[in-house]
Amino acid sequence: MDQERTILALTALAQPTRLDTFRMLVASAPDPIPAGELARRLAVPHNTMSAHLAVLARAGLISAERQSRSILYRAEIPQLRAVLGFLLDDCCGGHPELCGLMPATRPACCTPEAADVAL
Length: 119
Description:
Elements: H1 3-13, H2 16-28, E1 33-34, H3 35-42, H4 46-58, E2 62-67, E3 70-75, H5 77-88
Antiparallel strand pairs: 1-3, 2-3
Helix pairs in contact: 1-4, 1-5, 2-4, 3-4
């Protein structure tokens, strides 16, 4: 992960609807959620949701797959790990555990113990 891709990801998440959408997709991982369901859950018009999903997809944070007439979206957990890793690489001289943060090399971000870690 490089600085430019990290900035792109953080910029994509720096908007309330996109952040809520991404968090919803992370919570459902690895299962996808249809675009219409995301729009309904967040009470966002479908065309507005499409624009937000496009921004998240360009940042590499989500991916889409067509299933019949629906487009299903899922969080790209490896990309999330890469962003977090980039942010934590230099934490406390390369020892993020000293800062009370999760290690950049944690094998999975979606484990029960991850809920115990405060970012």
